Amino acid sequence: MNIYDVIQKPLVTEKTSLQKDSEGVIAFQVHKDANKLEIKDAVEKLFKVEVDKVNTINIAGKVKRFGKNFGKRSNWKKAYVTLKEGSNVDFFEV
Which is it for the CA torsion 80, 10, 39, 26, positive or negative? Predict the structure, then answer.
């Protein structure tokens, strides 16, 4: 799998911003079939940082109502990547 296909987008929320500042953990939405080793390689190559560990979680899509009809959002995978001491990723550079 291509490293550009593994990481789909960073998850920038209030919770992940606090985790990044305090614990050095960043969150990404990743490809559903990506494993921890592929995620680690992709983050290290794309952002030029050292990764300590990767935790993944599968998120089930929510059932939503569209008028009279019901639909379901897609399932997706989230990865929490812990960086080694001294490594930092800035999504929004000032």
Answer: negative
Alpha-helical (H) ranges within the chain are 3-6, 14-23, 36-47
β-partners of residue 82 are 25, 53
Name, in order, each residue with C-beta under 8 angstroms of 88's C-beta and a sequence gap of 6 or more: 24, 49
Task: Select from 89, 81, 78 the least CA-distant residue to 31.
Answer: 78
How many angstroms separate the CA atoms of 52 and 45, rounded? 14
Spatial separation of the C-alpha atoms in residues 24 and 82, rounded to whole Å: 6
pLDDT-derived band at 1, boundaries 50, 70, 90? confident
